[in-house]
Amino acid sequence: MSAPLVDIRDVSHRFGQHAALKNVSLAIEPGSYTILLGPSGSGKTTLLSILGGFVSPSEGKVFIRGEDCTSVPPAKRPTTTVFQDYALFPHMSVGGNVGFGLRMRGVDGTSRAARAREALALVGLAAAFDKKPHQLSGGQRQRVALARALVVEPAVLLLDEPLGALDLKLRRQMQDELKAIQKRVGTAFIHVTHDQEEAMALADHCVVMNDGRIEDEGPPERVYARPATRFSATFMGESTILAGKVTEVANGIITIATQAGPVSLPGTLRAGTAVALAIRPEHLVFGATAGTVALGGAKVNDVVFQGSFKRVLAMSTKDPALHFIAKASAAATVQAGDTVAVSCNAGDIILLAD
């Protein structure tokens, strides 16, 4: 197996008494699109700043292409960063902005202009070379910042919430463009966001962070379908969480007592073990169905139409503290005030250590 492009080893960082990162280790493969996903204060931006050389870790090492870059300044490491505010020079033309990094590296004017035009063509802005940043839309300025970062041919491109300032429609358009550009250039992208939908749309490697640690990592399909922790199950998409305790173990099947009733699943945990069960909204079914796990009745509190589906919030009639989050079809007749039976397939229940 080849060595990772980026190898973060036991990195910790403190701002005064606050521990922003706690013994983080992470490997990034060449050509991958990695998303660092987590809430504010989870450590994702601090980790990106350490990768870019803007912050030196309190402990640990960062290797890029096998070289120790822990103390290497930003301009001398094989990374470039696209910031949320784009940081374009307003007095320079778009071409001048894109070629600025090449200018700092001593590339002559003719070569600089040619490479800047190539980078702008890559992001679909070939005609903008002589314009000023203020003449461009937000999405176009974002692409200029991307071209400026890519023109110096970094081994790793770092993106700090680059779509955060865009409206929803433009953000989704730029997600498609970012993914397409990354596939064309083959550079490893490491992208910070707190937007779960953005993570699933872009990543082939998703890293879920919380309180300075990595909670879960892997392909987004796996992280969503089989999250490793309770936090990951609730942050990477929504889940209904049932708290429970194993009451019986027999022939590879465990029975778990929950506030919605007993649930039997394949497993080997010992009796008395506290667990949590997570169920994704699309897997909850209103109405009892043969062969499914019955989760009792629920009173519907709210129904929100969201285009292709209805988001339904309901409260268990057995335990008011248990709230179900479900996705029903757009044509479903369920409405607030209804009392419904709730069930799901046993194979769709995610068993988590509590």
TrEMBL record:
Organism: Mesorhizobium shangrilense
Keyword Transmembrane carried by entry: no
Residue stretches making up the ABC transporter domain: 6-236
Coiled-coil ranges (or none): none
Entry keywords, A to Z: ATP-binding, Nucleotide-binding, Transport
SMART domains: AAA
InterPro entries (UniProt xref): AAA+_ATPase, ABC_SmlMolc_Importer, ABC_transporter-like_ATP-bd, ABC_transporter-like_CS, Mo/tungstate-bd_C_term_dom, P-loop_NTPase, Transp-assoc_OB_typ2
Descriptive protein name: ABC transporter ATP-binding protein
A molecular function GO annotation: ATP binding
Classification via Pfam families: ABC_tran, TOBE_2
Similarity comment text for this entry: Belongs to the ABC transporter superfamily.
